[in-house]
Amino acid sequence: MQGFANTNLPPELRVLKEQIEEHARSYGLDFYETIFEVIDAEDLNEVASYGGFPTRYPHWSFGMQYEELKKSYDYGLSKIYEMVINNDPCYAYLMRSNNIVDQKLVMAHVYGHCDFFKNNLYFSHTSRKMMDEMANHGSRIRGYVEKYGEDEVESFMDRCMSIDDLIDIHSTAIKRRDDVSRYDFNPKIDEEEGRTKRFKSKDYMDEYINPPDVLRAEEEEERKQREHTERAFPERPEKDVLLFLIEHAPIKGWQRDVLEIIRDEAYYVMPQAQTKIMNEGWASYWHTTIMEQKAMTPQEVVDFADHHSGTVAMHGPRINPYKLGLELLRDIEYRWDTGRFGPEYEECDDLDKKRSWDLKLGLGRKKIFEVRRIHNDITFIDTFLTPEFCERTKMFSYAFVEQTGQYVIESRAFEKIKQRLLFSLTNFGKPWIYVKDGNYRNRGELLLWHQHNGIDLKLNYARDVLQNMQVIWSRPVNLETILEGKATLLSYDGTEHNQKTLGEHDEPRRNPLVKTR
């Protein structure tokens, strides 16, 4: 992308930036140095289409994103007020055409995000030099384009980017693999594994405490377990499908590097999806606090109210993360200020007493800083969403009725609302896919497994994924799932798709009704 015009802050915005930063630090916010750049709307749309990284690698999907953002802005449907990048230092972009009150609000909002990036547990593993790494990624991919051709590199990237969400979002906090591999042959370990466990006993009681038949059965079972483990590849279902492909797929060196780049960037953006409600709620909390208490002049009240109301307004059937995060943080602050938590409050049966409950603890601000540090969206909703909050904010769950073709209110019950929210947030509403066998049928085929949670896969999506995976794996790719209550195997061998109900003959039946080219 071409360079921008002068992006330095003009003198009046530099003064505002220093003032807003001082206000933010006075409230206890802790963030890396933040560099603001002022750019035009067209340039901001261009940066946004690259995910905030102007030096990112080229790809046609970024051009499509730019066209969508540009047309949406030109037709007055949407407007990007700010963009901030998780980096050290943090980079934030301001739109040159914004008025002063908008610039002040955006700066306060940005400092809330920067504090969240630095201090939230789920961002702790992310690279703080991602701006440089993205430039490095772009340079490497441009080099591959020059060497191998744009069509070949872009075609392979298309396939990799179509499966960039097949990673293990919890692997940064949970140890998935043993330190000692089964290939590290340690005679002492092998000897211990081959010895059947016996209970201590006197000689005359040994036959009764350690029956020979039972010991032989246990030894046989352990032998079978060891043989199965030695044959299993991988040893247990692998959630990080991209990592498995990087380690075992028969691809060229440059293709492996591209796949590693896609995976690295997927893990970088993952925490932002895990904490969208909290992150936007935290930034909105602080832009309202700083503006209302420190930075806003009387003449700016109406403009601020107009902008802020548009930010937290609900649109269509989707939850607005700004609104939900802000309101829930305020509710937590109020509850911990007044002492509306703990067994004493929960067990109180007097509704009048609960309505006027106020222990004047003043712990609200401290509590929300703690919440900001250790929670993600799922634990945030699961821990702090209450029936009183749902009733006060008039929340409800909705469902689509096929007979009428309309969405209707399904329930106002707290448990239903909470269940719907948590379900939509779990794995970002996407299916759980694992690598189950890298040598399926002893033919070098890849077997994936879908952990069914009550919702069937979309067959057109599943088949596209299998097709892309087959190109990377170079052998047939299979997927175990459940469709309409029946265990089903979807397969793609490089030429055609097949589908069979498990329990049928080992070889997929050539059913023209389920075959697609």
Please outline the helices and strands.
Layout (H helix, E strand, L loop, with lengths): L10 H16 L7 E6 L1 H9 L10 H15 L7 E4 L4 E6 L4 H20 L10 H19 L1 H12 L25 H7 L12 H4 L2 H20 L9 H8 L4 H22 L1 H20 L5 H12 L8 H18 L4 H4 L4 H5 L8 H11 L2 H8 L2 H6 L4 E5 L4 E6 L2 H12 L6 E9 L4 E7 L7 H15 L3 E7 L2 E7 L4 E5 L16
Parallel strand pairs: 1-3, 7-8
Antiparallel strand pairs: 2-3, 4-5, 6-7, 8-9, 9-10
Helix pairs in contact: 1-4, 1-12, 2-3, 4-12, 5-6, 5-11, 6-11, 10-11, 12-14, 14-17, 18-20
Key structural traits:
globular; 517 residues; 3-stranded mixed beta sheet; single chain; 4 domains; 51% helix; 21 helices; alpha+beta; disordered C terminus; 5-stranded mixed beta sheet
Helix fraction bin: 40-55%
Structural class: alpha+beta
Strand content: 5-15%
Estimate the mean pLDDT confidence: 88
Give start-end ranges of low-pLDDT stretches. Answer: 185-194, 505-517
Q: What would you call the shape?
A: globular
